[in-house]
Write a structure and sequence with these properties.
The complex is a heterodimer of chains A (about 210) and B (about 70).
Chain A (H helix, E strand, L loop, with lengths): L2 H6 L5 H9 L1 E5 L3 H12 L4 E5 L23 H12 L4 E5 L17 E4 L4 H12 L4 E5 L12 E5 L2 E5 L13 H19 L8
Parallel strand pairs in A: 1-2, 1-4, 2-3, 4-5, 5-7
Antiparallel strand pairs in A: 6-7
Helix pairs in contact in A: 3-4, 3-6
Chain B lengths: L1 E4 L2 E4 L6 H8 L6 E5 L2 E3 L14 E6 L5
The chains are: A alpha/beta (about 210), B mainly beta (about 70).
Chain lengths: ~210, ~70
């Protein structure tokens, strides 16, 4: 065990840690939701990740995404992999710097227990969730996380094996920019669902 | 015809596909995930899915931001 793993042993039993380590996590999008979810899941003890994102890091990302000034102009998937390995060097992280489309969807997340939707565009969210719903145990998605935390309470809606977190209304626009507290709140709820399902608890149990 | 949408009873007259129903219920947003009687219906199948009396429909809207 490395020091990080020794540390997590203070909080989770051997059985719980083994259960978490077996899970394969697929993340579509390494922006506000995806980068923060990945960090939260690594800190929770997950070690197997497959992350897809075509983008590079821009100054406008730094207000909410898990990147810093040194990461500017780097591919998001390279930077997030580096950050995750700094938390737990034993992590096994596969990355793809490519744009996800419904045409290449079958190339990714073929052995994932959880597939997480963390893209920007509503249409991509819909196609992604529809596609992986039949191909994995659980799909976790975010919808409606823009603006300030006072806008609307984030909820969890479950349809079959799909969990969708958000207020389902507040899209990113001029009145509702993507801001760190609400984006990371949504990311934290999504990561919490993955953790709880992995530990065989109800998704919204404490 | 009486159907339940997101837990609320709604009344409709005449035959409808799921696509027709979504146009009436959510005219502004076409990006949704739909479940009819606990089965996910993909958007490609909305037009050929006919709504029946007593159907239980769950709709969740996708909006931009991630």
């Amino acid at each position: 065990m490395n020091p990080f793993e020794q540390g997590t042993a203070n909080y989770l039993s051997e059985q719980q840690r083994q259960s978490i380590k077996k899970k394969h996590i697929g993340i579509g999008g390494a922006g506000g939701l995806g980068s923060n979810i990945a960090v939260l899941l690594v800190r929770s003890g997950f070690t197997h990740f497959e992350i897809i994102d075509h983008d590079i890091i821009e100054p406008s990302n730094l207000n909410r995404q898990h990147y810093n000034l040194d990461d500017l102009a780097r591919p998001k998937v390279h930077a997030i992999k580096e950050h995750l390995l700094k938390i737990n060097p034993s992590s096994d992280i596969t990355t793809h710097q490519i744009k996800w489309t419904i045409s290449n969807a079958n190339h990714f997340f073929t052995d994932c227990d959880f597939v997480i939707e963390a893209f920007d565009a509503a249409k991509t969210k819909q196609l992604f969730v529809e596609h992986y719903q039949t191909k994995t145990s659980y799909v976790i998605s975010g919808s409606g996380l823009a603006g300030r935390s006072s806008v609307k309470i984030l909820q969890i809606k479950k349809l079959k094996n799909i969990y969708i977190v958000g207020d389902y209304q507040t899209a990113v626009d001029e009145k509702h920019p993507p801001l760190a507290p609400r984006v990371t709140q949504c990311a934290a709820i999504m990561a919490g669902i993955v953790l709880n399902l992995s530990l065989n608890n109800a998704p919204n149990d404490p | 015809m009486e159907v339940i949408i997101n837990g609320k009873i709604k009344l409709f007259k005449g035959e409808r596909t799921l696509k027709d129903l979504l146009c009436e219920v959510c005219p502004k947003n076409k990006h949704l995930i739909t479940e009819v009687n606990e089965t996910i219906v993909k958007s490609a199948d909305w037009e050929k899915t006919f709504i029946r009396e007593g159907d239980q429909i769950e709709l969740v809207t996708f909006v931009g931001g991630g």
